[in-house]
Amino acid sequence: MLLIGYWLAIYEGVSLTEHFLFKRGFRGYDLAIYATPSLLPPGIAAILAFCFGVFGAVMGMAQVWFVGPIGKKIGNPLFGGDVGFPLAFGFSACSYTLLRFVERRRFGR
Which residues pair with 62 in a beta bridge? Predict the structure, then answer.
């Protein structure tokens, strides 16, 4: 169950970046193209951003079974502090922004 929180941060990082930065709100969605896969983004940027988000979560997590290197430096010296959620969000949002610009330039969609 603890890992679902990290997944949520990654999902929010990708989806909120797409919604506000690339779609510019709800008016940016063209519902007519969703039935045609060749008009949709290939998703490479989202997959890679997910991997970067997992990396951020691992670096900042402080769980009973694992404490990441950044998590060790935050909070209690023995147990660390869990900063995996904000790091997962930040890593995924920043990497998605850069990768999505590249993806749009390369694929044009």
Answer: 67
Predicted confidence at residue 2, as pLDDT, reads 75
- Residue 105, Cβ density class (10 Å: 0-12 exposed, 13-18 middle, ≥19 buried): exposed
Task: Return the residue matching tokens 């749009």.
Answer: 104
Higher confidence at residue 78 or residue 31?
31
Any long-range contacts for 3-6 (C-beta under 8 Å, 24+ apart)?
Answer: 5/85, 6/53, 6/54, 6/57, 6/61, 6/84, 6/85, 6/88
Residue-wise pLDDT for 36-91, tens only, equals 999 999 999 999 999 999 999 999 999 988 999 999 999 887 888 999 999 999 99
Token pair recorded at residue 2: 């603890």
Cα 81 to its chain centre, rounded Å, is 21
Question: Residue 83: CA atoms inside 13 Å, Cβ hemisphere, count?
Answer: 16
